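Render this sequence as a predicted structure.
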Amino acid sequence: MAATTLDDVDVHLRAIISNLYNLTVQTHAFQRDSQPRNFATEIKQLIRNLVDLTQAARRLPDHIPIELIEYIESTRNPDIYTREFVELVMRYNQQQKGRIEAFASFRDILAEQMMVGIPDIREDVKTVLIASGGRAD
């Protein structure tokens, strides 16, 4: 059975909202001598759409991080959890950026020293340096 997407759920919810709106209009404009058949048809369609939504909801991926559940159970705001998680990821990204810059600097210094120290491999070092994103001066 294929997983349901949020777009599928959105379609079901829109159909249910439409059913409820139509029922509201029909109820407001109800007259004794009018046909209750339309009303019954709309209720049956609403029930069918609710069943479809329920079945679609069962197929949605429902992985919720255990940390978030524990956070909510300790009566904390999940928005704060999200903000803390984003801050943690930003801090990690900054550390990774620092490491990348440090390794790039090391690459350039090593290549320069190798070209000075071993002139015979100068062209090979330049080729490797350019291939790895460095600058060959």
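Summary. Residues 6-62 form one domain. The two ends are 59 Å apart (CA to CA).
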